[in-house]
UniProtKB/TrEMBL annotation, chains A, B:
The record marks Y142, K193 as: Important for catalysis. Mg(2+) binds at D226, D250, D254. Keywords: Amino-acid biosynthesis, Branched-chain amino acid biosynthesis, Cytoplasm, Leucine biosynthesis, Magnesium, Manganese, Metal-binding, NAD, Oxidoreductase. Catalyzes the oxidation of 3-carboxy-2-hydroxy-4-methylpentanoate (3-isopropylmalate) to 3-carboxy-4-methyl-2-oxopentanoate. The product decarboxylates to 4-methyl-2 oxopentanoate. The keyword Protein biosynthesis does not apply. The keyword Manganese applies. Belongs to the isocitrate and isopropylmalate dehydrogenases family. LeuB type 1 subfamily. This is 3-isopropylmalate dehydrogenase. Pathway: Amino-acid biosynthesis; L-leucine biosynthesis; L-leucine from 3-methyl-2-oxobutanoate: step 3/4. It comes from Pseudoroseomonas ludipueritiae. SMART domains: Iso_dh.
């Protein structure tokens, strides 16, 4: 029965073409695994803006609220770069996070063995890297009020943003991170600038309290954001799970992704709070952007979008076995030597988006 | 004549021991180059806290205001980590920046040829790296009001910081960056999150205006902070000068430093606005911290502190020739194979702080 309501939002740039390959995986699951999804497709980003005048139409929000999970592509492109704030494609993702209450962004940074050489770091530094960044995504400076650009009495402009975190906001995302650490190597590094920022001071205090009261078995350490960036660049394997607020999490998770050298391989999940029946809103997206420079050429790497589906199966539907099947299929294709342009290396064969999709389906 | 008033603030941890080697260079200049400094030594950080109850005593601020340049060591250590905000050693540097109006932090990230292998990045990625980050240091979220941790009516705590930038603050640090770009490869990358932050939106607008009106010959580009972190990790050599606000500049400059793999080699300058006679306050410090784990062992690398003196001679006294002499002496010592523990590599000889100092003096 079609009890799994899935909203697919391809978005802009390479979004639609990588999503096409994922649809093939979903079809395959339908036929072979007898898992049936009630699948809807919606609009977001620049595509939605052109069609409806809004980068995140109300209809998309309503459908997302009604769905069990959202599979998101990517948004944005030079075409819309000079639009005012409330028209920008990025608003698509920001509004969805806020309206669905998606406060915990899970960003794995993993280096698969066949891709060690794709990294700009020395092989020894990144071989076997497997860390997870948990980033808060509905609070902090992204949404705090007051915010705006105003003209002062002397005629000068002044830009203001407010970073604000409540105890409750910090505690709930900390719980997600502690819980994840427990299922991994039991180590959590919490990141802020408590030496400079007041919200950072509260962040450190609350994370410590949650750890002490609810997760005394997890080894907790604290690190300043600047030091964390250094440590990530020099010894990334020291980390297991990293917890950070919205802004530091944005920068550090992109940094961690870049260290792997294979952005085109990395998925992410953004989760809301579970309700009394355990159901939670969730959105899954590759971390690569819309890559307008290669859009429409059929050369984009569909793996991150496929692995986002795997995360979706695992986190939203508890389908660990199916998630693993997809992950294993992708790994086997890489081990077999096929590569899209972004992860090419010596001795490998370059293929396009759909051939990569074919290969994953064959492995499945 | 002793017309160059220099305030030396060794601070905590390895600060005093690396400063000792620099004092030898200053003595040598006195004798050989007939440059005479009126040299005072002051207290800052944990050392000042122990002696006076304040991490940045008024006397230190007064002396810094009277000096032509400040040579700063480093502050902080585990001993003072749990103190309240207003007692923390870091306040030493924060207060000096604010009271002296040191708004432009210049942070070079340079990979010297003999140290290419010290980096965690592949040699090809970092060989010849030479970029400069200009970070704003008296504004933004470090000082904006309101700030604090308060208890809300419902009993929950709430932490608040305010990021605020005026047009004038952005323009003056932008001018420093543009001016530097002109003396280098004529390219400037300005970094913010204009897609999310209002202060970032103003930042981008003002930097564009300054560029268009005053530096039309400098090639200006804009980059989001998350993307900049990625690009630094993957292709750092694409950059010449990077301009960023206080918070992003903190994280990105430490990241850039880490990429070099030789933190113990990197100096920095923080400059105020020139007055009508062209005189400006300025503070010079190595970017490595107080490194409490190795303090007092005589193994710290004195090079960054020595190179900070070189920057001081160049920027505060226009003594380009003397600055170059020190830089060349340090490079020759490295080329000769001597290394402190932090930058050891195969085929090099490990020496302590004072032997490294001896070697530099011998080259001079
Ligand atoms: C597109 C942008 C608003 C967004 C963010 O800053 O959160 C992106 O960088 C991300 O990390 O998902
Ligand atoms: C010590 C700390 C307050 C300081 C900062 O955040 O500015 C340091 O990280 C730096 O970069 O000089």
């Amino acid at each position: 029965t079609a009890n799994k309501r899935l909203l697919v939002l391809p978005g802009d740039g390479i979004g639609p073409e990588v999503m096409r390959e994922v649809r093939r995986v979903i079809d395959w699951m339908d036929r072979r695994r007898h898992v049936s999804f009630a699948l809807e497709e919606g609009m977001v980003g620049g595509a939605a803006l052109e069609a409806t005048g809004s980068p995140c139409p109300d209809q998309t929000v309503e459908r997302a609220l009604a769905a069990d999970a959202v599979l998101f592509g990517s948004v944005g492109g030079p075409k819309w770069d000079s639009l005012p704030f409330d028209k920008r494609p990025e608003l698509g993702i920001l509004r969805l996070r806020k309206e669905l209450g998606l406060f915990a962004n899970l960003r794995p940074a993993v280096v698969l063995d066949p891709l060690v050489d794709a990294s700009s770091l020395k092989p020894d530094v990144v071989r076997g890297l497997d860390l997870m960044i948990v980033r808060e995504t509905t609070g902090g400076i992204y949404f705090g009020e007051p915010r705006g650009v105003e003209t002062m009495p002397n005629g000068q402009r002044r830009g203001v943003d407010t970073e604000v975190y409540t105890e409750e906001e910090i505690a709930r995302v900390a719980r997600v991170a502690f819980d994840l650490a427990r299922r991994r190597s039991n180590r959590l590094t919490s990141v802020e600038k408590a030496n400079v920022m007041q919200s950072g001071r509260l962040w450190r205090a609350v994370v410590s309290e949650v750890g002490k009261n609810e997760f005394p078995d997890v080894e907790l350490s604290h690190m300043y954001a600047d030091n964390c960036a250094m440590q990530l660049a020099n010894r990334p394997k020291q980390f297991d799970v990293i917890l950070a607020g919205n802004l530091f999490g944005d920068v550090l998770s992109d940094l961690a992704a870049a260290l792997t050298g294979s952005l085109g391989m990395l998925p992410s999940a953004t989760l809301g709070a579970p309700d009394s029946s355990g159901r939670r809103h969730a959105l899954y997206e590759p971390i690569h952007g819309s890559a307008p420079d290669i859009a429409g050429k059929g050369i984009a790497n569909p793996c991150a979008q496929m692995l986002s589906l795997a995360m979706l199966l695992r986190w939203s539907f508890g389908m660990e076995e199916d998630a693993k099947m997809i992950e294993t299929a992708v790994e086997k294709v890489l081990a077999g030597g096929l590569r899209t342009a972004d992860i090419m290396g010596p001795g490998t064969a370059r293929v396009g988006t759909s051939v990569m999709g074919d290969a994953v389906l064959r492995e499945l």
